[in-house]
Sequence to fold (535 residues):
Amino acid sequence: MTDTPTIAIVGSGPIGAAYARVVLESHPTARVVMFEAGPQLTERPGASVRNIPDADEKARARELSQGPQAGSLRESLGLPAGVVVEGMFTARQGTHLLDFGGEGSAHAPTFPAAAASTNVGGMGAHWTAAIPRPSGSELVSFIPGDEWEDLVSTAEKLLHANSAAFADSPIGGAIRALLDEEFGAELPEGRGVSTLPVAGDPQPDGTIQWAGADVVFGPLIEVGSPLAERFELRDLSLVRRVETEGARATGVTVEDLRTHVTRFVPADLVVVAADAFRTPQLLWASGIRPPALGHYLTEHPMVISTVALDGERMARFATEDDLKVELARRALNPADPVGAVNRIPSSEPDHPFSLQVMYAENPPFPLDPTHPHAGNTWGYVNMGYGARKQPRFEDGVTFDDAELDYRGFPNMTISYELGDQEKAEIERATAMLRRAGKSLGTFIAEPRLLPPGSSLHFQGTTRIGEVDDGTSVADPFSRVWGFDNLYVGGNGTIPTATSMNPTLMSVALAVRGARKAAADLAAADVTGSEGIPAA
Ligand code: FAD
Fold:
């Protein structure tokens, strides 16, 4: 018996970080050891790469996160020799495609843009940091409303939520005013055009320090903090198996990617927060195979466009002096392409979509200098509608024990199809995007549907459920069905069809799981753990 239980957490993204923070704050003596397959990129673990001012340093941090697509840096990540990647990068910077085309790559012809990040902080080191709340049918019906309110506000605190980012920007205000003229009358009270809630801390000069897993870790990574003494983060440490005995996880088998030494690390409780594809893959590789594992994959079909803002229309709500002030502020942080951030949130039944409108002084792609809207005085907006995908068993990732991927795990095949409901909603979202664009200016990139997987919001593959009826992987507290002490975390746990960015919801679900884990550990007669051997 020990009164210092050990929790092993797989994955150091925002969700792993939330588990670590809440368990350690809720339990007086527990220790957390976190294993991350990728490298630490920044001095402060898990910080957003967007905050790195130096362009070369930023590019290197992104490349280091790209696992098999990390170019010449691949060997330093402990990847097996001979990993061959074909073709050009098509993933977002800081991510790597799952189906990268070389030997050991996943098979995802119907979900080609699926990608992951492999680094301390996970995708949370590269994300846009938009954290709107879920609403209506996006919510989980079996979590009581007042508890949900507490969970989601706790998640907002953990992520340093800011619901009024750039709210003082007159350019952002003019964009909102024009969108409101177009849509205001048809949107319900409280669900109209507004600023997009983001995770980050406004700085005195008007810029934002974007949040990553670092802010979620908070005191766990502050030198001298008592909680830091009970927390250990091991990077370049690939968890190969969750070990189990009956209904209990007993620990994890971990490969140190620097030395390639593999050993067992005992634990009293295991949390797998290794993203929506690699969490089910690790469970599968560990022989933990609930029928819903990997299935019910959803994401957000994305329709995007770029618009050159119309001077006359903008001038109805902002002056040229306002524009000068805005551009001067933007010049303080030229490495960060995002200015004022606005949105129209989802409202059912008429607007089950989420619109995101990001102002930038330059378009996101090179524009021929002879283009009539090159160098547009009032700048541009990049806009996108996220639509819903209804969960279906048939959509998902399956694993092949006979074919190993580049890391030696059962390889993934992703199957995915849009149904009639999704196609109809995408059509409506496209029509809304056309209206939004026309109300603001002229399209320089027409609305277009991105290839499946592009949202990077992969959900449902380890979904929670109210009862163990084969349609979910974990219980309402994210405990894998049939296990007392094995939790899953991340967007994979979201069981509903949503249109909003999912991280806030996943952090809220993680807070629920972590509170339960801490309470169970406190109540348990913890036996058998001999602590963690030193790295
Ligand atoms: P991740 O952040 O993906 O972290 C999982 C970690 O687990 C990874 O670091 C991985 O290396 C590690 N891992 C995997 N397998 C193993 C193993 N076997 N052993 C050890 N470690 C392992 N979301 C939003 O809500 N809003 C946004 O605006 C937004 N914008 C985005 C923009 C970009 C460019 C990207 C890339 C993502 C964006 N996202 C956004 C998605 C968001 O980043 C994710 O929802 C979030 O990071 C999920 O957190 P996580 O901890 O579950 O997983």
Summary: The radius of gyration is 23 Å. The CA atoms of residues 471 and 512 lie 21 Å apart.
